[in-house]
TrEMBL record:
Keyword list, A-Z: 4Fe-4S, Iron, Iron-sulfur, Metal-binding, Molybdenum, Nitrate assimilation, Oxidoreductase
Name of protein: Molybdopterin-dependent oxidoreductase
Domain 4Fe-4S Mo/W bis-MGD-type: 1-57
Cofactor needs: [4Fe-4S] cluster; Mo-bis(molybdopterin guanine dinucleotide)
Source superkingdom: Bacteria
Family: Belongs to the prokaryotic molybdopterin-containing oxidoreductase family. NasA/NapA/NarB subfamily.
Length: 717
């Protein structure tokens, strides 16, 4: 039996795993006791990984050879790799020649490895000359990126997991870490057990399992986080709990913010957020007066039409109280996906460039062009996730290349997304799982390797880079994501820059990573002191880790100097705004979405295991018992849940975790479990038949945490 150290492919905690294999098959998995993210522990998802990779499941679920669909709506047929790659390069080349580079779009994934991401980014921005490359991480953390940059000057979470052990107050906002980041949550539980004096506050419209651990639970109304944060600052100012020295020495813009939060009186906050005034006072006091306060936050802040404001106004609280840059303190955004951070690092989003450079900055574009050996990088911002599918639905984008993500299930406003893929002239789906709903829309299907087969690196929520290593050969004819992108890129180079040296000379992931590493030189995430060899011998490392450093930095801004022009952090005076689609008389419920404990994304992997349905067996809409009673509903009775965009039918379930006029549906259920219709009658699936693509104007992250819906009892025929 062989043992291979690698990383769990599910959430942003980034737990280390040891994969046991024999005869080319994965036979077991266990937590890596030496990995600093989990010290040997795994959650239900991680500990069952090997069971999702058995030969029987691989045969049923994996895409094992390249396929092409000769006519839309017909079954795809097999073709060889060379023919498949030639066709992709031929069609992308043709469309770029006929319509210009912005007629193509790449929609990639926070589940790709850093090396995969790097190649896709260079292919789009460096070779083809379009910034139309975005990722499902746009749905996950782009508001966190925007919030950090706006206030602290760089996209760098300043804290680390170990800070949980040093905090005296934990403020968990918009995060059900108990389900979404289970191993981190176990660390929180252990810290509380060891230090019962540590205060835990949870702000969330749902009383989740995370909220059950709280000393103070703040059941704020959906979308009112900014008002809550302004109200907390108002109280802190009134009570004299801010840190005037820290504000004076390390920040600017406080006066403007002070004027703004003057209006956020306890009465206004209590009414807007639905929180008792005494709890607001208690929360403000605990936050400001604890020796160390750590905020942990996730999609409740990010997936919002005010996502940037929510992130930035929470960071305001840390700056105003000096709760940053010391052990156990700081604003710490949690990434949902295993490598959303790596994607940020290589600039794999429509508005970013390599190593945290900005597309809008001419000097940054010139630096990246020089690194890549191209004349320039286009300045026109690319289409972000929602914009990209809208542009394809409008006929502006004519070719889509979708890699390692399942937008036919996961994107909001499914009707538009599906129309986009139907209207596009050419759709490439590069995927490990043939069961992903998006495969139905592909003209070409390219089989990709997945966990247990892939090699590269990922970065977890705390900026720690880990190796991902293969334990078994690729299934069927599957190839690595970076390899597929390189092979198409070289074919495109033959059309677009014949006779010139390739921009993609890579034969190994290490060669790609080394180029990425060089791009970070002198940047805030500088990893020029790190190597594959160091990651393998000394284990996962934090960035930055500069040349000559022995270790990375677990904690940032300990010297009070921020990566801004004058070294000071900026207070963000951003006003509270309600959700994009407020509930109203025709659509009186606020629908929110979220994770279950034992499933991941669209269930392509976790849905193969019966045991992972033991916790929750089938889809349902959770409602407050009073709303159930008012509508004459009993547990399990079917209801229509309808938004302006579509409708689904599913059983209702009473839950005291849900407040009146609110509703919750888990995000995971796909077409096999939850069918529906668009408002025009087209077949749709899953909760995203209902969700809105309204997004934060700064981060462009859509508001998956709120849609106005109505709920009516389904009449049986
Ligand atoms: Fe995997 Fe996340 Fe569970 Fe760790 S906590 S085992 S990374 S799913």
């Amino acid at each position: 039996m062989s043992q291979t150290r690698s990383t769990c492919p599910y959430c942003g905690v980034g737990c280390g795993v040891i994969i046991e294999s024999e005869g080319g098959q994965i036979i077991g998995v266990r937590g890596d006791p030496q990995h600093p993210a989990n010290f040997g522990k795994l959650c239900t998802k991680g500990s069952t990984l090997h069971l999702t990779a058995t030969p029987a499941i691989t045969r049923q679920t994996r895409l094992l050879q390249p396929m092409q669909r000769l006519r839309r709506g017909h079954a795809p047929v097999a073709l060889g790799w060379d023919a498949a790659l030639d066709r992709v390069a031929g069609e992308f080349g043709r469309i770029v020649r006929e319509h210009g580079p912005d007629a193509v779009g790449f929609y990639i994934s926070g589940q790709l490895l850093t090396e995969d991401y790097y190649v896709f980014n260079k292919l789009a921005k460096g070779l083809l000359g379009t910034n139309n490359v975005d990722t499902n991480s746009r749905l996950c953390m782009s508001s966190a990126v925007a919030g950090y940059k706006l206030t602290l000057g760089a996209d760098a979470p300043p804290a680390c997991y170990d800070d949980v052990n040093h905090a005296q107050c934990l403020f968990i906002v918009g995060s059900n870490a108990a389900y979404a980041h289970p191993i981190l949550f176990r660390r929180i539980e252990a810290a509380k057990q060891k230090n019962p004096a540590m205060k835990i506050m949870v702000a969330d419209p749902r009383r989740t399992d995370t909220a059950e651990l709280a000393d103070l639970y703040l059941p704020l109304l959906p979308g009112t986080d900014v008002m809550l944060f302004h109200g907390l600052l108002h109280v802190m100012l009134w009570e004299g709990w801010t840190d005037a020295t820290y504000i004076a020495e390390h920040t600017y813009g406080f006066d403007e913010l002070k004027s703004l939060v003057r209006e956020a009186t306890p009465d206004v906050v209590a009414q807007t957020c639905g929180i008792p005034k005494e709890d607001l006072f208690k929360a403000a006091q605990w936050f400001a007066q604890s020796p160390a306060t750590l905020s942990l936050y996730c999609q409740g802040l990010n997936q919002s039409s005010s996502g940037t404001a929510k992130n930035a106004t929470l960071i305001n609280l840390h700056l105003a109280t000096g709760q940053i840059g010391k052990p156990g303190a700081g604003p710490f955004s949690l990434t949902g996906q295993p490598n959303a951070m790596g994607g940020r690092e290589v600039g794999g989003l429509a508005n970013l460039l390599s190593a945290h450079r900005d597309l809008a900055n001419p000097a940054h574009r010139a630096e990246v062009a020089a690194l890549w050996g191209v004349a320039d990088v286009p300045s026109k911002p690319g289409k972000t996730a929602v914009e990209m599918f809208q542009a394809a639905a409008d006929g502006e984008i004519k070719a889509l290349w979708i890699a390692c993500t399942n937008p036919a299930q996961s994107m909001p406003d499914q009707a538009t997304v599906r129309r986009a893929m139907q209207r596009a002239e050419f759709v490439v789906v590069q995927e490990a799982f043939a069961t992903a709903a998006t495969c139905d829309f592909a003209d070409i299907l390219l089989p990709a390797t997945t966990w247990g087969e892939k090699e590269g690196t990922v970065t977890n929520s705390e900026r720690r880079i880990s190796r991902v290593l293969p334990a078994v050969p690729a299934a069927g004819e599957a190839r690595h994501d970076w390899r597929i992108a390189v092979d198409v890129a070289r074919r495109l180079e033959a059309q677009l820059r014949p006779g010139q040296p390739s921009l993609f000379p890579y034969e190994t992931t290490e060669a790609i990573w080394n180029e990425h590493r060089e791009s970070t030189r002198g940047r805030d995430l500088d990893i020029t002191g790190l190597s594959y060899a160091m990651l393998e011998t000394e284990g996962p490392q934090f960035w930055p880790l500069r040349q000559g450093d022995r270790t990375g930095k677990p904690r940032l801004y300990e010297d009070g100097v921020f990566p801004t022009a004058d070294g000071k952090a900026k207070f963000a005076a951003l006003p509270y705004q309600s959700t994009a689609e407020p509930s109203e008389s025709h659509f009186p419920f606020s629908l929110t979405t979220g994770r279950l404990r034992d499933h991941w994304h669209g269930m392509t992997r976790t849905g193969t295991l019966g045991r992972l349905f033991g916790h929750v067996a089938e889809p349902c809409v959770q409602l407050n018992p009073r709303d159930m009673e008012r509508r004459g509903l009993k547990d399990g009775e079917l209801v229509h849940v309808t938004s302006k965009r579509g409708a689904i039918v599913l059983p209702a379930q009473a839950s005291h975790t849900i407040q009146p006029t609110q509703a919750f549906i888990a995000m995971h259920w796909g077409p096999e479990y939850l069918s529906g219709r668009s408002s025009q009658g087209e077949p749709l699936a899953g909760v995203n038949a209902l969700t809105t693509s309204a997004y934060c104007p700064t981060s462009k992250q859509p508001e998956l945490k709120h849609a106005a819906v109505k709920i009516l009892k389904a009449e049986l025929p």
